[in-house]
């Protein structure tokens, strides 16, 4: 409604408010403070509107006798509504939390977070330690102290992927109760949260619970998930708060009262994501929020930029901290703990050995498996991983395969089997006594708790290799060195010799498809530094390796690679510029600096365009989703698989207007038809000429005409 009537109604409403709250005033708030508050006010208004529009809590009623009488009644209803919605956070618990370790087993970083002084006001903490050193538990111990100090009323745990978020949620539901005096609400926030059996169990709890809860109102939408006392989800759900999307301010409001814990923060180092994370920290601090950042391989320059963004958001001066000590616990502008005397990884240093060709990896893994070793081979490209597992199987090694190009149901099945084989309590040998073997892509290196005796990896930037090596001899207390089938941890890296002349195709001969996944300059520097060192000294040697490849004073690359580096630098500047263009203009306030666009128009990550397929089977009753589930909607989600759009060039994908497909999608909304390509899978796995699906190997491009 607009026009004179709307203006009159608005004026009447303001006059009623002035009568009800005669002491209310905005005096003392300058325009900058008002613009800062506008972001939170908008989010609060969305929540209030959602709750106030719920007819169960606020049913239709006769016009009240007066505004004052209406206020009394609605306050009574509001108290019930807010409680039933799950928006009343319990008080933090002051007792020692019952995490999955005993007090006597506290590790050095965990001891440090218990003793470090907290700073006044919004607080940022960096927890930098090796993979597997207990950073998650350290973050929770620090978060409990921060909760007790009033730096938040809840937590949001942000992970790099949906798989890692699911794994964290499983841990969270077991330990988060200890942080609060009463059962807190716990939600899982990402696009596939409905497929998590652990989240489903939490949602299905009815009545009073002494663990964690998630009422139907919070569980109804992933946008509301950030309103729960504890949220676990992808970093993307938080980053949407600083993009001009429809529910950005709702996310801002949900995060503002929470301690934001970002795991694997080094994974957010590409220029686009880095700009977004800086903006998120700046806005979070501006609203009084605090944050904990966890990392094993964060370059000092990136640490400084993140710290500066947070301190600027909090309205404080910032001085860079160039101290390179590692491990390190840093609170910018306040305390730091860098003295961890005698801290040595239980597995000792990791030797680095170069393999010249993939064939050598097949021979090595076959011998190690025969000796009973649990083995992993990490490849940078899906097609290279498929080729590797086929080579191993041809050599008599029954290797499993894990990558991102599976239907979601098959990927979850394979991930569960991998955890059963290589997890903390894994059955690492088959019935024949041979060690189990898995070939995987980068999905293996992020926050997943695997433990291998032997590892082979394609050459990758050193930060990625350190993450991969973190899954090597990981659980030494469960599997000490004398019981391992190999004498010491060794990271075998397939790479060409960095000392020979290098050009743009230097890496392609050993990585036919994966050579272009990472920047060539970073990979050459990794090979030069790592093979010269001959080992990864954990944890003391990690900082020097990271700075040598990802820092600011870098080794000069050979002339033949320089053009590739210059091109990558240009792309990085462009990506950072696009991020700055997309991010909301915080200083302008919500009205001028925000927006209300569709999430799909403002991506949280840049990448090559992908195409999503929905795999289906032919049955006597018509097409049916590839996966089976309790509902068709869930079965469809479990049946999706994606690949780069360019891979489908030249392929005659199924005609979406064909009668059987049209019948299957008849009740779909238009946006879903536009976003999914329905693909019937034949008995032999065929989809169309050049494209097949195999539940053991994933989506297979068999045509030479498909894009690279």
From TrEMBL:
Its EC number is 3.1.-.-, 3.6.4.-. Residues 116-316 form the Helicase ATP-binding domain. One of its GO terms (molecular function) is RNA helicase activity. It is an enzyme of class 3 (hydrolase). Keywords: Antiviral defense, ATP-binding, Endonuclease, Helicase, Hydrolase, Metal-binding, Nuclease, Nucleotide-binding. Pfam families: Cas3-like_C_2 (PF22590), Cas3_HD (PF18019), DEAD (PF00270). InterPro entries: Cas3-like_dom, CRISPR-assoc_Cas3_HD, CRISPR-assoc_Cas3_HD_sf, DEAD/DEAH_box_helicase_dom, DEAD_box_RNA_helicases, Helicase_ATP-bd, Helicase_C-like, Helicase_Cas3_CRISPR-ass_core. GO terms for biological process: defense response to virus. NCBIfam families: cas3_core. PANTHER family: CRISPR-ASSOCIATED ENDONUCLEASE_HELICASE CAS3, DEAD-BOX ATP-DEPENDENT RNA HELICASE 47, MITOCHONDRIAL. In the N-terminal section; belongs to the CRISPR-associated nuclease Cas3-HD family. In the central section; belongs to the CRISPR-associated helicase Cas3 family. This is CRISPR-associated endonuclease/helicase Cas3. It comes from Amaricoccus macauensis.
